[in-house]
Amino acid sequence: YQRLKQAKRPLLWVGGGALACREAVQRLADAGVVVMSSTHGRGILPDSHPRSLRAFHNSPSVEAILKQCDLTLVAGSRLRSNETRTWTLPLPRPLVQIDIDPAAANRNYVADEQVNGDCGALLSALAARLTPGEKVHAEWDAEIVQAVQQAETALRQQSGEYAKLNDAIAAALPADGLLVRDITVSGSVWGSRLFRAISPLCNIHSLAGAIGMGLPMAIGTAIANPQRKVVGLVGDGGLALGLGELATMAQEQANITLLIMNDGGYGVMRGIQDKYFAGRQYYNDLHTPAFCQVAEAMGLKAWKVSDAAQFSGVLAEAINYPGPSVVEVDMKSVGPLTFAGPPQKLY
Fold first, then answer.
1. Phi and psi, residue 95, nearest 5°
2. Which fold has domain 160-334?
3. What are the b/e assignments for 136-174, b being 16+ CB within 10 Å?
4. How far apart, in whole angstroms, are the C-alpha atoms of residue 67 and residue 91?
5. Whose CA, among 16, 120, 141, 241, lies 20 to 30 Å from 75?
6. Angle (nearest 5°) at CA 174 between 29 and 168
């Protein structure tokens, strides 16, 4: 508590171990603590909060904010390599790590202090000892908001036409709707950081790096949440690993709009080979079926989109359609989207 009390610009980094700590994190943010989340922890503090840095870990404008902080509290996060530039992202010192698992101590970053215990109890105790607005400074808040706006603008530019797709889903999906995404280019670029985060566990994804989990996870999520609409985000390559699960989606009448991003290959591998292997491309092209025809053969309602101008209308119709549906996005027609893997350490 003394470290937090003395800090003028404290940073709280929350991960999946803090998913149940929404109220405590909100109170700490209201007191003036700036909050960064892992991609899994997004929504613990809503994006709309003025002290949320969201998951813009590797954005230059947000890194500039981190450099001005004078304390890092890490709560329930492994500080994964893909969110810390292979563990070279400078984190403010002193660094205090809160984790219920003693084995987490100093695993990826050496902590100045390790506190073993439940994140909820510890963060609640800290929040109770700070008064609302205790560490709030108008100029600092303005810098935080500006940094986040710059990071989002850069991500929208990187996403290109697909930022409009992100916005179309956000506009059509109810506030309690769920996004379930596969490991795919779209999921990694705009699905993970640009798509809204209102509350925890509304942006669901595999914590492993393997593709193919998107549709099975979307089906499971929809069955577990029958009153909530699910948007499943998959690539053509990942979907190919479980194409037959379209029959499960149809048979169970799962309330899913499956969004198939079809670029005719393994887009992540193309980006990696462009960046790290002088553009030499091998084993990246895929023969893909006519996904709408496959869906219709399963008895599913289906749409195909070949122009960004169609995003808003088609997604509104598909998401409001009761029961399972499929939207195929022809990425070769809409335009390119490149992702070369997570940021690497600087040499």
1. -115, 120
2. Rossmann fold (3.40.50)
3. eeeebeebbeebbebbbeebbeebbbbbbbbbbbbebbe
4. 8
5. 141
6. 95
Contacting residues for 94 by C-beta, under 8 A, at least 6 apart? 3, 71, 72, 112, 113
Tell me which amino acid residue 310 is.
Answer: Q
All structural domains of the chain with their residue ranges: 1-151, 160-334
Q: Using an 8 Å Cβ cutoff, are 85 and 60 in contact?
A: no
* Alpha helices in 192-253, H assignment, sequence order: 214-224, 236-240, 245-251
Residue owning tokens 């171990």: 17
> Would you write out the chain's pLDDT as a tens digit for each of its 347 residues?
899 999 999 999 999 999 999 999 999 999 999 999 999 999 999 999 999 999 999 899 999 999 999 999 999 999 999 899 999 999 999 999 999 999 998 999 999 999 999 999 999 999 999 998 999 999 999 999 999 999 999 999 999 999 999 999 999 999 999 999 999 999 999 999 999 999 999 999 988 878 999 999 999 999 999 999 999 999 999 999 999 999 999 999 999 999 999 998 877 777 777 777 878 878 778 889 999 999 999 999 999 999 999 999 999 999 999 999 999 999 999 999 987 566 666 54
What is the rounded CA–CA span in Å between residue 343 and residue 236? 24
Scored b (16 or more CB within 10 A) or e, 308-328 reads bebbbebbeebbeeeebbbbb
Rounded CA-CA distance 278/272 in Å is 10
Query: Please, which residues have CB within 8 angstroms of residue 68's CB and are 6 or more apart in sequence?
Result: 9, 143
160-334 has the same fold as 1-151: yes
Position 2, amino acid? Q
**Cα–chain-centroid distance for residue 164?**
17
Q: Which residue has 């899994």 as its token pair?
A: 40
Look at residue 314 and give its three-state secondary structure: helix
Q: How many angstroms separate the CA atoms of 305 and 213, rounded?
A: 23
What is the rounded CA–CA span in Å between residue 127 and residue 160? 40
In the CATH scheme, what is the code of domain 1-151?
3.40.50.1220
